[in-house]
Design brief:
The complex is a heterodimer of chains A (about 110) and B (about 160). Chain A is mainly alpha-helical and about 110 residues long. Chain A is built from five helices and two strands. In chain A, helix 3 (about 30-35) crosses helix 4. In chain B, strands 1-7-6-5-4-3-2 form a seven-stranded antiparallel β-sheet. In chain B, helix 2 crosses helix 3. Classes of the chains: A mainly alpha (about 110), B alpha+beta (about 160). At the A-B interface, helix 1, helix 2 and helix 5 of A face helix 1, strand 1, helix 2, helix 3 and strand 7 of B.
């Protein structure tokens, strides 16, 4: 998997999206992240590893708590990709519009 | 910063089609219809299979002139609740080595639009996406808008 696939795979999990939403408010330690989710520390650490591997967060190597913080660049790359993908579907549905018009026009005249 | 978190994991598209819900739903799920609108007008769809029931397979091969080649889309339906809801997992843009350039779960909810026609709320969660796909998507879009121009001209001549 390339980087962007890792990003999307990481983002496909609702818990990890919630963790990102928490980190958008500021950096946090494993304990601080675990609290509102009623999740164990190891479970949070597992999710953080996936997010870090995807480039969505980084973890401090200085403090012992190793607080996690958001890395917006990966989200931005995913967002740009999504924008292109949305245009792709919009074009597809323009085609469906034309087809529906054609179908209903034929239906009326036949 | 907070606004960026929602970006990137979900695409939502809202759209109103000028047709009744049953017809829109049929266009989304019946192979005969899919073969007609899935590709641009000068493309053909040599393989169109659709088994619209939970676990049923979808397979669409869109064949275009060079440099487009054949673009297959494979997937499965997860929820088929005619004519209200459709959930499917689709994979597209196969890569060398057997993987897919994209895999996504798409949910479509159809309601009667107040102004008439059918309102579609489509949410796509991208499960996997390849960086290499971005230029392919742009290329496809250009190919498509060109073919729509041709289609419009053709329809105008017919009308």
């Amino acid at each position: 998997m390339d980087t962007l696939s890792n990003t999307f795979a990481a983002l496909a999990d609702p818990t990890r999206r919630a963790i990102l939403a928490r980190l958008a408010l500021g950096e946090a330690s494993v304990g601080e992240i675990a609290q509102p989710f009623a999740m164990s520390g190891p479970a949070v650490t597992k999710h953080l590893k996936v997010l870090e591997h995807a480039g969505l967060i980084s973890r401090s190597r200085v403090a012992q708590q190793r607080p996690a913080r958001l890395e917006p660049a990966a989200l931005k790359a995913a967002g740009e990709w999504i924008a292109e993908y949305r245009r792709f579907w919009d074009a597809k549905f323009d085609g469906l519009d034309a087809y529906l018009a054609e179908l209903q026009k034929n239906g009326e005249t036949e | 910063m907070t606004t960026e978190v929602g970006v990137g994991y979900e695409v939502t598209i809202e759209r109103v089609f000028a047709a009744p819900r049953d017809l829109v739903f049929a266009c989304m799920t019946e192979a005969g219809h899919l073969a007609r609108w899935w590709g641009p007008h000068h493309f053909d769809v040599p393989v169109a299979e659709s088994d619209p029931r939970p676990g049923g397979k979808i397979r669409l091969d869109m064949r275009g002139p060079e440099p487009y080649g054949t673009n297959p889309v494979h997937g499965e339906y997860e929820v088929v609740d005619r004519p209200d809801t459709l959930v499917m997992v689709l994979r597209g843009f196969p890569e060398e080595g057997g993987g897919w350039g994209i895999e996504h779960r798409t949910t479509m909810v159809f309601t009667d639009a107040p102004e008439g026609g059918t309102h579609m709320h489509m949410t796509t969660v991208v499960l996997q996406a390849s960086e290499a796909l971005l230029p392919a998507l742009s290329g496809m879009r250009e190919g498509w808008s060109q073919s729509f121009e041709k289609l419009e001209t053709m329809l105008a001549e017919l009308g």
